[in-house]
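G., the chain you wanted modeled:
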Amino acid sequence: MGIRQTNGRGRLYDSILDTVGDTPAIRVNRIAPDHVTVYVKAEAFNPAASVKDRLALNIIEAAERNGTLKPGQTVVEATSGNTGIGLAMVCAAKGYPLVVTMAESFSVERRRLMRFLGAKVVLTPKAQGGFGMYKKAMELAEKNGWFLARQFETDANADIHENTTAREILADFEGQKLDYWVTGYGTGGTVTGVARVLRKERPDTKIVLTEPANAALISSGIAQERNGRDVAAGHPAFEPHPIQGWTPNFIPYVLQEAIDGSYYDELLPIAGADGIAWAKRLAAEEGIFTGISGGSTFAVAMKLAETAPEGSVMLVMLPDTGERYLSTPLFEGIPEGMTEEEAAISASTPSAQMAAE
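Predicted structure as tokens:
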């Protein structure tokens, strides 16, 4: 095989925002079972490195189109991190101030990234969970007349996945089999938007949804308490879990459409430890760097593969990059200094003796 070449994209971009979407579907070659073909849709290729760049952009542009967001108005939103980072990128590019509310339990690097992009980050108590940061954002919007992004309720969320993510999947698998599409949920925008399209245009594709085993809100069968679209209280089936970005302590309104419409064929829980293990394998054995949420979705696909028919083709959503998780259990046991094996390698050449003198 000759040396690889690139030819550029054949276009110039007017803004960082024009690079959102068109993320690649990448084959997994070494760790998937031989009897199935597995692809991952790597959302870390978005400019702020997560799937939430899509909804962040559409929330702001939809509000600009309908006039609910005024020039220079402050935007406020509750987020576990990725939506906040996406909004910080969009607001920086468009000139809107941004205030993010986030539970203090989420990774430190996320809040630092948002602040680096110019946002203000207001932390809420860990004990209040996702509902606490959600309520704080609503209070701040009402008190100050700020624009509340409402990622958990807005139509702009699922709509962007219907018009981008789903269309990309159709184009990438045109003329090809696609037996399973596997995703988790945070707001529910990805599963709701993509499923609208797959149900109509690829009805043979089985949609598999997953949630944390110890915070299986949908599986509990307990309805979410609401005031209209808004959440009225945290969900009783919630427990803290390590899969950041997945499953807040309530069922979002955006996700409710997928539940009510039976947009998924299977709902499979996964333990956070399994997600961490598979994220590590994706990195070390495939060179695919994703976070705990991506590892958890992939773990579900590997469970499906155990009983999937010969020749099945799967597409697995990987929502973000592993760099969002440096201070989380994903990187526990990864040393900063040299391991014994690394030290032995270092000591095996003459320069090590020179350094010791």
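Residues 64 and 70 are 7 Å apart (CA to CA).

Shout if anything looks off.
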